[in-house]
Amino acid sequence: MRTSRNNRLFALPTSPPEILDLVGARYHLAGVFKHDFFAATCLYELVSEPTPDAIPKIVVKFGRSQEFMGLPCAWYAHFMQAHEKAIYHALAGVDGVPRWAGDIGKTAYAIEYIEAKPLDHLEKPPAGFFDQLMPLLEKIHARGVAYVDANKRSNILVTDAGKPYLIDFQISFRLRDDLPRPIRSIIARAFNYIIKRDVYHFLKHKRRLCPEELTTEEDALSRQRSGLHALHRKLTKPYRTLRRKFLHKQQKSGLLTSPTEKLETHHQPEKATWRDEKKLS
Fold it and tell me: Per-residue confidence of the chain (281 residues) as pLDDT tens digits?
């Protein structure tokens, strides 16, 4: 009977470094928000004497460094690091997007930590929250970035004052200015389609969480699923179901144990989709 833990389903085979240095400042590992197949997202706190540019708390995303089924994966982590770096630089100065803090090696990076709770941790956000969130989305779109991952409430942060922040631009789409005009024109069509999907998802969250604040026009937009959207749901639903059942079986047998489990004090509602048998039926 197999008793070894299935660490291959996690980005890192062991815990991330206890201490790391970034732009002349030293940080200590304070916790792990999330550790999945693609990345380990961790909280680090400043322990050295602060410099003028030092950020007191940073979130470090370590991309997958270990192989999977004999195939190297570090190249993908490096690619995603470069991709998100370009996105954060494109959005620099947008109020509601954390500051980029720096590269850490070739497969990890750091951003500013925001004192806030993910939207999926709240039964209901403060009144007027979505009226602040939509202008933030418009600013991001104006910088040539389509968010893409708007369906995930865990990527929408809510501060105690009710201010929105957006994080995790891993699959965001950037309309680059340096592309040849014919190619950029074609890509712009895809970009315009995606930003409409961003609006749809954000208004869908508003309809479900704050229906009393929804206007008639917003209600209509929040129900406009496109044909491609419906096709995507149809194609990915079987995969999600099989994935959740597999993870549940691994977790129930004791094989699926994260290398950072003792550091993962952050509530992760998305894990309930495969840990809870009722939600698998």
Answer: 333 456 777 889 888 999 999 988 999 999 999 888 899 999 999 998 877 778 999 999 999 988 888 889 899 999 999 999 999 999 999 999 999 999 999 999 999 999 999 999 999 999 999 999 999 999 999 999 999 999 999 999 999 999 999 999 999 999 988 878 888 888 899 999 999 999 999 999 999 999 999 999 999 999 887 666 666 566 666 756 676 676 666 666 666 677 787 788 656 666 665 555 445 44
DSSP characters for 198-256?
HHHHHHHHHHHH-GGG--HHHHHHTT---HHHHHHHHHHHHHHHHHHHHHHHHHHTT--
Q: Are 146 and 195 in contact (CB under 8 A)?
A: yes
* 27 CB-near residues (< 8 Å, 6+ apart): 19, 20, 21, 44, 45, 46, 47, 48, 58
- Taking the C-alpha atoms of residue 255 and residue 26, their distance in angstroms, rounded to an integer, is 35
Instruction: State how far the Cα of 64 lies from the Cα of 76, in Å rounded to an integer.
Output: 8
SS3 157: strand
HEC secondary structure over 26-54: EEEEEEEEEECCCEEEEEEEECCCCCCCC
